[in-house]
Every structure is written in C-alpha cells, then in structure tokens.
Write a structure and sequence with these properties.
single chain, 718 residues, Tumour Suppressor Smad4, 3 domains, 19 strands, 42% helix
Length: 718
C-alpha cells in the first residue's frame, strides 16, 4: 500500500484512517464475493464508537477527493462516488463540530468535481448542497433525517418517510422469512421517541457549539429531565434549525446564539440533578437511529398500492386521496429525499449557480450532452418518476422507500405493480401529489449454488438483473450483491426466533446505508407484450409487461428438446428429424443509421427466448435480443430489435413465461406483439393539452419509454 505521508502530511491517526479508506476502495475492484461490505461496515462502527475521529476522517477524505479531481481525463472516476457517499455519511453522523476552515476546503474540492461527467457531477452537487446546509446550520442534516425517518411531530418540518421491505415468497422459506424479519423489525425495539429526541438535541448542540458544549454534562442533564421537558427542548431546537435553514448563511450567528441559550436553559433546569462535573470537550455518541421498517411477504401485487395509499392517508389525515386533481403546468416535485438537499438557489454563489443553470458547461466527456439532458430535463419532468411536467421542487411530498428482495422474478412483479400504479396516476392523481416513491432492490435467491451474482452462470441464471446492476455500479456490487449472499445463509440459522444483538446488525446497517446513499437510479426499460390466446375457439387478448425476460416454447416439441439436450451430439442429427414448428416473425431491425428496417422471417423453432439489453450495458440504446431455438443447435438464430411480432403456424400454440416466473405463464398463445412500454398518459396529445402556447418545448427531449428506476449508488456511468 502506498505510504500516505509521501504526498500529504497525515497524523498517525489519519494514516490509519487513510489505510482503511484505501482498503475500502480496493474492495470495489475485488472479484471475490466473500465478506463484501464488511470494511465499510467496520468503518461505520468505528465512527459510531468514537465520534471524535470524524474530523480526522473528513480531512483524509477531502485530501483523497482533491487527488481524484486531478486525475487525467482519460482515467475513470470509479472512486469518486464512494468517497462522496462516505463524506456525506461522516458529516451527517459526526457529533463533533467540524471547523469552518475544513468545511471550506471540502467546498472547494466539491466545486472542482462539478466539472466531471454525470453521474459523478450529480452526486458531487448533491453532496455540496448537504455540506453548505451543514456549514450554515450545524446538525441540520442529522435532525431532518431523524425527524423524517422516526416520524417525529413538528409543525415546521412535516416531511415523513416510510420503509417497506417486500420479500418474494417464492424465494423466502419460512425459516428465512422469520430470520430476516427478526433482523429488520428489531429496529422498533432499539429506539423510542424520548431517546431519539434527547439524541437530536444533544447532537445539534454538540455540532453547533463545539468545544463550548460540555457534552457529558449535557447528556446527563437531558437524562435527568422528564420526557415532556425533553419534548419541549426538542421542539425549540427543531424550530431554530428550520429558521436558520430558511435564512441561509446570514442567519448562522443568530442560530448559534439561540443554541447557546437552549444549552444554558437545559443545564439550569437540571442543575439539581447533575452530579458529574465535565470540564472537557469529549463528544458523546449519537448514532443515527434505525428507521422503522415494515417487512412482509409480497403475495398480492395490490399490496404495494395499498401500502402506499395507507401511508399517504396517515401522513395527510385531513385530505382525501381520492380528490380529483387537475393537471397543472406548474406542478411541483422533489427529485431527491427532500431532507438534506433543501437549499434555495440564493444559497449558491455565482459559480455554483452557473453550473446548475448551465449543466452542459459542467459535464464533459463522451455522450456528455445526452447525459446532461437526462439529468436536467428528464429528472426534472418526473413527478412520480416519469409522469407529468414539473418546474420546481416541493418539500411537502412524503417519501416511500420500497425495497424488494428476491431474484429476477420479484423485479418482474415490481414491474407489473409499478406499471399499474403509473396507469392509475395517469388517469387521476392520487399518490403523485403527496408521495415520492423510491425503489431499491436486494437480490436473494433460493438456489444455494447461485447465491452470488458474481457467479458466471448469472447471465442466464436467476440473478441476471442483479449482475447487471453490479456491472454498472461497483459500489452496489460490493455492498448489496454481497448482502444477498449473506441473507441466503440466514435460513440455516436455528435461533431465528431470538432477536439479533445490536453489534450484529450487519444486514440492518447495510440496508440503511443503501437507503441513505443509494440516490442514483439505473433505469431498466419496460416492454409491453400483447398476447392473443385461443381457447375453445374463442380468441382473447392479454396485455402484460416485462422487464428482463420472455420465453415462449411450443409444447409439442418440449419433450423432443429435452431428449436432444441429453443425447450426445454425435447421435443428435440421426434421432432428430424435425427442427421445430414454423413461426412467422416480423420485426424492426436495429441499424447504425437508426432507420427503421422492417423484416420478416419464418424460422423453424421449438422456442423463443427474448432478453432485455438495457442501455446501461450497451452504452447506446435499449434493445431486445431474440433467440430462436431449434432442435438442431446449428440452426439457432439470433436478432436484435425493439419491436417484434411472432405468430404460430400450423394451428400450433405457444406457452409464454414472463421474467422467469412460472406464476406468470400463459398458454394457448397464437400471437405475440412486443414493443417498448410507453409512459401512461405521456403521449404527444396529452402534452399538447397542457401547453398554454401550443408549443412542445420539452417533447423532443422526453423519453416516452417507461423505465423501472432501481436506486443504486452510482447509477449509469457512460
């Protein structure tokens, strides 16, 4: 390992932290799936055990970011985002007062990173906003995050968050379900409202007052006060924080002044109960409390809608979710969590404002302008990701974080549920106005041999989408793909009824890290499939959607295919005389000129396998790979397309399975029509109806194909 003292001057403690950071970065490049994520978790636990080391850790991180910002433009920036996420976590978790001079250095380093291509610049900008908020109002990030996640009542900050974990019953056996439930729902046993409020007051006063705050004495004073008195001081701190954020940098002095008054009042109110004298400035730990998590087996796809509706009703008890809302041109949205990124444009200096208003000048490199349009236009026109035009942010919308656990099949179920929600919202705004939906995915499989997405079989296995996300985001691969393997092992534990101890919350802590730092989505394109079925001489049409996989076979040839796959290749040609059924195919060929070339074929095949190839992997456009399987492998054919129609001949039918899920199998299918799934209610006509001047300034930038936005740490890097 390179000696950190060769380039910059580090203290002994900082050298140790530097080595930890370098080991964390090296883990991203490792191909081994064992113990992935443990280094990050160990660093997190070290910070929780010794909050005073946070200042040293920030120094190490900012020096590392300065080096990354000077890398040659030909080099990748893979380490930028892990450093930014680590920096954000340290700042929000730190109980120590970070010097203004250090914050200024951090600010300068982040400003340089705004010139990188997206998504690096997007994460850098998000981190910069958080840092600026914490500079002007120390402790605000921690307070807002805790208040939202713990649903603490306050009239000045009403944002609420809820975490739903939906597990696929096809993957989760009874022992595995019980074990995971015990690990996740223990969060409700580890926290209570009074303790959380004490920690918020302690954390904000420590961060704001620094060495003038006698932390141990303050902690003892808060313990001595009754819960109703702590509630009073908590509300005072919350009001002061929100007022300071509203006033911006100009209100910092007044903010610190008010914190000093609250600090003195607390010590005075409990002076008769304090027995310990503290003349030092040691920092008391106030680790981030675990959010309340609702875990359930996802048996009915309507469960997701019902959960979101109940959450919305609980957050807005005085308004009906069934109210009719007209589409407005000046709708509002929140493209992020609405917690730590609540800065006004006036809070930025001229340079930052230029970069925000003119992102093309900030994003350089291959496909920079195309990615800029994605960041600056598409994301800003997605109220419920991808639905209606919006022009400004709204901090009033609550956040529902939905985590699905399972293999490719659970993402197929999520696709159907998400599409259904979007269809409902296109007809009547029920959730969109009040809710910001964020989707997360933790891969888990019931097959022990395929428990890791790093397995070479995963391209065709049950975790192909997890493998895709891991390839486009190394940080997701090292933390979340490795977590899925650890979850699979939990089924073998016999003591799943007992609650895990606080020092063994690896699963819960990693999930929280994912929820807090997984802000960059990878958009998986959805495809519509229209199936014409024939049963009892009556034709019917079924419309479905899929995200990764469609497989269709001719039942009459299924046994021959199985027999031919078992026989030696030398005898296969002699025993198999029929290649398959005649299938009529009409498709649009993908060409470099982007001209539509319609072609028709009539191959003989016993089955068809269609796989989605997202632009995240192709660095170009989304397309489908269609493979026609013959009983003689030498006659297999493969095409690439976005639109295809398949029709059986000779009175034969197909059996169609979507997203590798046997629960989504359709029989007696005579015709299949596949095309990109369009955003419900986002047609050119609907856009024209909401445009006052008849112009469509945004329509040419809109990607009307509906995508499933799965949150990752890095997102797509082109």
């Amino acid at each position: 390992m390179v000696d950190p003292t060769a380039d910059v001057a580090f203290s002994t403690a900082e050298s140790s932290l530097y080595n930890n950071i370098q080991a964390l970065l090296e883990e991203m490049n490792s191909q081994s799936a064992s113990q992935k994520g443990m280094l990050r978790w160990s660093l997190q636990k070290m910070l929780e055990a010794d909050p005073s080391c946070s200042v040293s850790l920030v120094r190490v991180l900012v020096k590392e970011l300065e080096k990354l910002g000077t890398i040659s433009k030909t080099q990748p920036y893979l380490h930028v985002i892990p450093m930014l996420h680590t920096l954000y976590y340290v700042v929000i978790q730190s109980g120590a007062m970070i010097p203004t001079s250090l914050y200024q250095t951090v600010h300068e380093s982040l400003m340089k990173l705004l010139t990188l291509p997206s998504p690096y610049s997007a994460v850098a900008l998000s981190t910069l906003r958080s840092i600026k908020m914490e500079m002007t109002t120390p402790g605000s990030l921690y307070q807002r995050r805790v208040m939202a996640e713990q649903n603490l009542k306050n009239e000045h900050f009403t944002l609420r968050e809820k975490v739903f974990v939906l597990a696929d019953p096809a993957v989760f056996s009874a022992p595995l379900e019980a074990t995971v439930r015990a690990h996740l729902e223990v969060s409700s046993l580890l926290t209570n409202t009074s303790t959380v409020e004490k920690n918020v007051v302690l954390r904000v006063l420590q961060a704001g007052l620094g060495t003038t705050c006698q932390s141990s004495r303050l902690a003892q004073a808060l313990e001595a006060l009754g819960d109703h008195v702590v509630e009073k001081y908590f509300q005072e701190v919350a009001i002061v924080v929100e007022q300071s954020i509203k006033h911006g940098a100009g209100g910092r002095a007044n903010y610190l002044n008010k914190l000093q008054h609250i600090y003195r009042d607390i010590l005075t109110a409990s002076k008769d109960e304090i027995t310990k004298t503290d003349h030092g400035s040691s920092v008391c730990g106030t680790e981030m409390p675990i959010p309340e998590i609702k875990f359930l087996l996802w048996r009915d796809e309507e469960d997701l809608w019902n959960l979101l509706e109940k959450f919305t009703l609980r957050c807005s008890p005085h308004s009906s979710v069934d109210e009719e809302v007209k589409y407005k041109r000046h709708s509002v949205q929140s493209v992020d969590s609405g917690i730590e990124r609540g800065l006004k444009e006036s809070d930025f200096d001229d340079t930052e404002r230029h970069l925000v208003r003119n992102p093309v000048s900030a994003f350089k490199g291959r496909n920079a302008f195309r990615r800029t349009k994605s960041l600056d236009v598409r994301e800003k026109t997605e109220a419920f990701p991808g639905s209606f035009p919006v022009l400004k942010e709204d901090r009033r919308r609550h956040i529902a974080r939905v985590v699905v656990m399972g293999d490719d099949r659970v993402l197929g179920r999520l696709t159907r549920a998400y599409h259904s929600i979007r269809e409902r919202e296109s007809k009547r705004l029920i959730l969109t106005k009040k809710l910001n939906l964020q989707l997360y995915y933790i891969p888990v499989t019931a097959e022990p041999s395929l428990s890791s997405p790093d397995s070479p079989r995963q391209g065709e296995g049950s975790l192909s989408l997890a493998s895709l996300l891991g390839r486009v985001d190394p940080l997701y691969n090292s933390n979340i793909n490795g977590l899925g393997a650890e979850i699979s092992k939990l089924a073998g534990m016999h003591s799943y009824h007992s609650q895990p101890s606080k020092d063994k919350l690896f699963l819960l802590d990693t999930l929280c890290y994912y929820l807090h730092c997984g802000t960059q989505p990878v958009n998986l394109p959805l495809y519509s499939v229209k199936m014409t079925r024939s049963s009892c001489n009556v034709s019917s049409v079924v419309e479905e959607v899929f995200v990764s996989h469609l497989e269709a076979d001719v039942p009459e040839f299924r046994h021959l295919k199985e027999m031919s796959s078992k026989k030696p290749s030398a005898h296969r040609r002699k025993t198999v005389e029929v290649f398959g059924a005649v299938i009529s195919v009409r498709y649009t060929k993908i060409s470099l000129s982007k001209r539509e070339v319609v072609k028709g074929e009539a191959p003989m095949a016993c089955g068809v396998v269609i796989s989605s190839e997202p632009a995240a992997l192709t660095s170009g456009e989304d397309y489908l790979t269609v493979r026609f399987d013959s009983l003689n492998p030498g006659y297999n054919t493969k095409i690439k397309t976005q639109n295809i129609t398949i029709r059986t001949m000779e009175q034969r039918t197909l059996s169609v399975c979507l997203d590798k899920d046997s629960r989504r199998t359709y029989t007696d299918v005579q015709r299949i029509e596949i095309s990109p799934c369009l955003v419900p209610g986002c047609s050119i006509r609907s856009w024209f109806s909401i445009s006052n001047d008849g112009e469509l300034p945004l329509s040419k930038y809109l990607d009307t194909v509906l995508s499933l936005p799965i949150n990752t740490f890095t997102g797509v890097t082109l």
